[in-house]
Amino acid sequence: xxxxxxxxxxxxxxxxxxxxxxxxxxxxxxxxxxxxxxxxxxxxxxxxxxxxxxxxxxxxxxxxxxxxxxxxxxxxxxxxxxxxxxxxxxxxxxxxxxxxxxxxxxxxxxxxxxxxxxxxxxxxxxxxxxxxxxxxxxxxxxxxxxxxxxxxxxxxxxxxxxxxxxxxxxxxxxxxxxxxxxxxxxxxxxxxxxxxxxx
Length: 199
Prior knowledge:
Blueprint: H1 9-23, H2 30-37, H3 41-48, H4 51-76, H5 81-96, H6 106-112, H7 119-145, H8 155-174, H9 179-193
Helix pairs in contact: 1-2, 1-4, 4-7, 5-8, 5-9, 6-7, 7-8, 8-9
């Protein structure tokens, strides 16, 4: 007889994403997962493996469901600097208000935690960073083609800087930074590029 699951693995994984995202992997034990999901350990282990495999699956899901759609929208937006400004405005709003306020970004949280020493986690973090940076560069190349950048601005170098700024917004918001303060920092960065759009 095949093993029949009496729970939805997809919904369970989404619950686990939120748990690791809010608490961090080091502060979350397998008993926390059991309590939050309502499943027993044997069901969790049989479906996902141990805590590390569950965390990796959750990190992958976070990237696919939350990070990558934002990156695609930014890269494909034809407005240049206004698209970058809108990206940061949305980021600040999501990090400072609403259901996930002060949770930061699950990937940024992993960058700052001890889990970044794991090679599999590091591979996900590196991929996330590259995709974020590439999306920023695509928007900056568009901005350059439309004459929005100040003379001498290098889209590649600025893509690196703006990617780091996004991580800073994520980490500072988790620590309680004010949305207006974060917005002023982003505005100053974009003004240096030649943009006048304000988050």
